[in-house]
Write a structure and sequence with these properties.
single chain, about 120 residues, alpha/beta, four-stranded parallel β-sheet, 4 helices, about 35% helix
């Protein structure tokens, strides 16, 4: 059995994984659909990639056994960051239409460079 930590993308929430958790459980895995800083109860403050990755890394650190991290959309950036922070704890990373950026570049830097504004 392995833990599958599900990281939602920007402007989403843990609910995006609702249709995936049951099949993962049926396949013998333990899914963990996280709510990330910047969403819900955290929505009233600014958060950085380090804040979000730190939140996920702290969660992963509390799990025993094999851990896989799955990132959707902007959550792919977080999944990569966590895997780089914890190579001894993260056995693999999967991307569902996930974004990947070069190490050291965050989503805000990407948006600024492209002149994008959040919706």
């Amino acid at each position: 059995m392995s833990h599958v930590v599900l990281v939602h993308g920007a402007w989403a929430g843990s609910w995006v994984w609702d249709t995936v958790t049951e099949p993962l459980t049926a396949a013998g895995h333990t899914p963990h659909a996280l709510s990330l800083p910047g969403v819900g109860r955290w929505a009233d403050r600014d958060v950085t990639l380090d804040d979000v990755a730190g939140h996920v890394a702290e969660y992963v650190a509390g799990l025993e056994g094999t851990v896989f991290v799955v990132g959707h959309s902007g959550g792919g950036i977080v999944a990569t960051q966590v895997a780089e922070m914890m190579p001894d704890r993260v056995a693999g990373v999967a991307y569902v239409a996930g974004m990947m950026l070069p190490s050291g570049v965050d989503f805000g830097q990407l948006c600024d460079g492209l002149g994008l504004e959040p919706p």
